[in-house]
Specification:
Largest sheet: 2 strands, antiparallel
Order of helices and strands: HHEEHH
Number of helices: 4
Radius of gyration: 18 Å
Distance between the termini: 64 Å
Shape: elongated
Length: 113
């Protein structure tokens, strides 16, 4: 396996560990459904890949590409990474809201007028 593959393997292993630690740290702070929604959203945002502008064919986590391109590169191009982050967050939130709204509609909860 190449160094590139190992880097993504490390990212894929560390994000669930970080989310588990955050889940344990937030225990009791928020409602369980809210906590789960925040963790799913954070996990999706942390794992979204974005192309690295100076290296065609290589990808890195979008939040890292956005941070490095906007903070450390003078003629940086953070726009692509920002769009990927925004689209991923909106899509993840839409799925979370869809699942939450479907879960609340139970036949025994609704009574006919």
């Amino acid at each position: 396996m190449s160094v590139y593959g190992w880097a993504w393997l490390i990212v894929a292993a560390m994000v669930p560990l970080a989310l588990f630690a955050l889940h344990r740290a937030m225990r009791g702070a928020w409602a369980p459904r809210t906590r789960l929604a925040v963790l799913v959203l954070l996990g999706a945002v942390l794992l979204l890949p974005a192309p690295v502008p100076s290296y065609p064919g290589y990808y890195a986590p979008a939040f890292l590409v956005f941070a490095f391109e906007s903070l450390f590169q003078r003629p940086g191009e953070p726009g692509t990474a920002w769009l990927i982050l925004a689209a991923g967050a909106v899509a993840t939130l839409a799925v979370i809201v869809l699942i939450a709204s479907r879960r609340r509609r139970r036949p025994e909860d609704t009574t006919p007028p």
